[in-house]
Design brief:
By secondary structure, this protein is mainly α. It contains 5 helices and no strands. The two termini are 16 Å apart.
């Protein structure tokens, strides 16, 4: 039996992640972080602030987005491009059945 990797799980996870960043409040105080550098006590991390940056980018606040992380808009575009590519892939697979 041949298994086709359609990337449906990846599609779901990226979509939920972007929806969570859009809906989630970026104004919440900094209390918890998934950042391993923050967890061990470093005050600077190259990725910190990118989630808030994406949040503000999706809401159209580009200057605030840039202030949190200069690559937030680029990261959003890359994730959005990946979601679109996964939708196209799955559309082709669904049409085969």
């Amino acid at each position: 039996m041949k298994v086709i990797n359609s990337g449906i799980l990846e599609l779901i996870l990226w979509t939920i992640a972007l929806l969570g960043l859009y809906i989630g409040g970026a104004e919440a105080p900094h209390s918890f972080s998934f950042c391993p550098l923050d967890s061990i006590g470093f005050t600077w991390c190259p990725g910190c602030g990118i989630g808030r940056s994406i949040h503000y980018f999706m809401h159209g606040d580009f200057t605030i987005s840039w202030a949190y992380h200069p690559l937030g808009g680029f990261a959003f575009m890359v994730i959005l491009f990946r979601i679109i590519e996964l939708i196209k892939l799955n559309k082709k697979l669904w049409q085969m059945y």
